[in-house]
Every structure is written in C-alpha cells, then in structure tokens.
Specification:
Elements lengths: L4 H29 L3 H14 L3 H11 L3 H7 L15 E7 L4 E2 L6 H10 L1 H7 L11 E4 L3 E4 L1 H10 L4 E7 L7 H16 L17 H11 L3 H14 L12 H22 L21 H7 L15
Parallel strand pairs: 2-4, 3-5
Antiparallel strand pairs: 1-5, 3-4
Length: 315
C-alpha cells in the first residue's frame, strides 16, 4: 500500500510530538532523582500554599491549576519515594443523616426545602425507611464529615432525620482533618478538569434561620395536598411522637402539623449538626460532579501534596 507524502508527513510529525512528550517526562523524572534546585523551589512553593487557610488555598489553586509545571509536580505522588503516603481508600456505604457534620457554614434554605415540599416524587423518596439516594451518593470523610452533597443531605435531614443516605466515603487517614481532605479533593478535581468550579448560596442559611422564618417560608411553598398527605402519613407512622390528629381534619390543619414537625427537625439540625470549626463558605467547596475521575486521583496516590515531595538519591 502506497502512502501519500502528506500522510507520511503527518505520521512523522505525530511521532516527533510523542517523542517530545516522552522526553519532557524523562527530563522531569531526572530532576526528581537529582534533587534539582528548580524542583526544590517548586516543593517549597507547593508546601507554602498547602498551609494556607482553606479559602485562600482554593483561590490560589483556582488561579494556578492551569500551570503545566504545577500540574506536573502535583502529579508526582507515586514517584516521591513513598508512593503509598498519599493514597486514600474510598468505598460505598450508608450513613445516618442525623450523625453527619457539614464542612461548609452555609446551607441554603430554598435548596434544602423546596424540592421535598413542591415535588411529589422528591417527598416520596425522602419519606422512606430504606437508605436514600438523591441523584448520587453524597461524598463523606471518616463516615462523619460531608465533603460534597450538603444540600442533598439537608433535604433529607430536615424532612426525615431518622433516615440513612447512601455515601461514597473516604476512609479516615491518620493526621488528616476534614479541611485537609477538602484541599486534596479540590486538587483532584483541578488535575482532572484543569479548572476549579464553585457554587454560591443565594438565600438564607438553614443553620441560622429563625424557626418562625422557616415556618413562613414553608407555608408559602407547600401547596400540594398530595405532598401534605404523604408527609402526614409518614410522620404518623414513623415519628417518635406521632402527629396529634385534630378533630378538624381539613387541609390547613394537616399542613400546619406537618410544618411544625419539620420546624422541630430544623431546630434539631441547628442544635446537633453545626459545621466543623472554621468551616468555609459554600462558594469554595469541592464540586465533585464536575469531574468523572476525581476519586481515582485519591485512590491511586498520584497527587503530590505532602513531604516527601520527590525522591532523592538518599532514598
């Protein structure tokens, strides 16, 4: 088979490009083995920024994650002389929503209450004694701290605090705080997408709103009698203290009792599910749904975020 000159040229150029990429990798590995001053400088740079407070760290990472040298360095976890030190185990499990702790200090009231109080299927899904999944499992650390999925959790906790939710749990690693895991998760997302995306809280904070304001908000949006009946029936069957059925069984009577039960649940959240100390705002939290393989970066140990940052001749 004859090859056209243009095809041959394309093959040659592609091979040259591939060889250049291989040479670039070899050169970087050589720097690691020889303890190159440039690499030492990069190690100090990364170490300094890893020690920033979380909000400042995310700002730095968002601004610099597109830098090729930084990406190369942050991807050397498997070649730093201790390849297992940055690996995390992650597994599917189910967790009690009442025991979970937010790692962000803002939980949007509307995002927490609107779906279950305006969408019948959402209400039916949450009013279940089986483990609940909303879209996908929430992301947790150490079976306790919410890393991503706060508003899916708050929907369930506000309506059905005795429920369990499916979770994709990052196993606890000695010496790692929830803030450390938030940082590492952001690096994983950044390396897999070349970007750091964020989302804002627009309304009132469920963890701080007055109980009367919460009642008033729900009073305005809960209009579907089918949803009222689903919630009423669920609370009658499952609440530790069943709703006291009024003699007047009209729509407004049931609705009022249902809303007061949810208010009690919110009061319990505000008491028992406060965020971790120094929890950041929503707008700097990891958005794991923007990456298809963020978890593989954690499981493989490829992320290079703590000492030793590289292997030298003495290792």
């Amino acid at each position: 088979m004859k090859i056209k000159l243009s095809q041959l040229r394309s093959i040659i150029l592609e091979q040259i490009k591939e060889n250049k990429e291989k040479q670039k990798i070899k050169s970087y590995i050589k720097k690691i083995l020889n303890e190159d001053p440039e690499l030492e400088k990069m190690a100090n740079y990364v170490s300094k920024n890893m020690n920033r407070d979380y909000t400042s760290f995310v700002g730095w990472l968002k601004q610099n994650i597109g830098n090729e040298k930084l990406q190369n360095f942050l991807s050397l976890g498997g070649k730093d002389g201790v390849p297992a030190d940055e690996k995390f185990d992650i597994s599917n499990t189910k967790l009690s929503v009442s025991k979970l702790v937010p790692t962000q200090n803002e939980i949007d009231v509307k995002k927490s209450l609107q779906y279950p109080l305006t969408d019948l299927k959402s209400a039916q899904r949450i009013c279940s004694n089986a483990p609940i999944t909303i879209m996908s499992p929430i992301i947790t650390y150490a079976g306790k701290y919410i890393i991503d999925g706060h508003h899916r959790w708050s929907q369930v906790c506000a309506i059905n605090p005795n429920a369990q939710m499916t979770a994709y749990n990052i196993t606890q690693k000695p010496g790692y705080s929830p803030i450390d895991v938030l940082k590492v998760t952001q690096i994983a997302i950044g390396l897999s997408t070349d970007n750091i995306k964020v989302a804002n809280v627009e309304g009132q904070n469920l963890l701080e709103i007055s109980l009367q304001s919460a009642y008033d908000f729900m009073q305005k949006i809960l209009k579907n009698i089918e949803i009222v009946n689903v919630l009423w029936k669920f609370y009658e069957q499952n609440s530790e203290q069943k709703l006291e059925e009024r003699k007047n069984k009209n729509k407004s009577g049931k609705k009022d009792r249902v809303l007061k039960q949810i208010v009690k649940n919110i009061e319990l959240m505000q008491s028992e599910n406060q965020p971790i100390p120094k929890a950041p705002k929503r707008d700097v939290m990891p958005q794991t749904d923007t990456s298809d393989n963020w978890d593989q970066y954690l499981q493989s140990g490829v992320i290079n975020y703590e000492e030793p940052f590289f292997k030298n001749d003495k290792q």
